[in-house]
Amino acid sequence: MKTCLVVDDSKVIRKVARHILETLDFQVSEAGDGRDALDQCQAATPDVVLLDWNMPVMTGMEFLKALGEVDLPRRPKVVFCTTESGIGHIKAAIEAGADEYVMKPFDRDTLASKLQIVGLA
Ligand SMILES: [Mg+2]
The domain containing residue 65 runs over which residues? Predict the structure, then answer.
């Protein structure tokens, strides 16, 4: 089964994303900030990380940088989530190592197509 780590400080968004991903046959785990996500990636690297930008403790951007510096058996794909107002972040996130991005609020079809682009659907 494909695995996805949903990283977002909003419990509601994690819940929505989990629901969508489970209908797409992903095994889902959740993290509330980048630090928690990095720890989970080191314990068991998921196939893909769905990554929020604004989070306490460690932001999505800080997570991307840290992920590039830790030694993992393989690199997870990273789909970065942004809002209309955060559209300027896309270029920076891609440069920092994100593979794709999805605009919030996302629906099942949008998320499925992004996962397909990164080779996971
Ligand atoms: Mg957030």
Answer: 2-116
- 90 domain-assigned: yes
> Structurally, how many domains does the chain consist of?
1
What's the 55 CA to ligand 1 centre distance in angstroms?
Answer: 5
Tell me, in angstroms, the distance from the centre of ligand 1 to residue 13's CA: 9
Ligand 1 ion: residues within 5 Å (CB): 9, 52, 54-55
Instruction: Indicate whether 16 belongs to any domain.
Output: yes
Side-chain-side CA neighbours of 49 within 13 Å: the count stands at 32
CA distance 48 to 87: 21
Q: What is the pLDDT of residues 81-113, one digit of tens each?
A: 988 788 888 899 999 999 999 999 899 999 999
For residue 56 the two structure tokens come to 């306490």
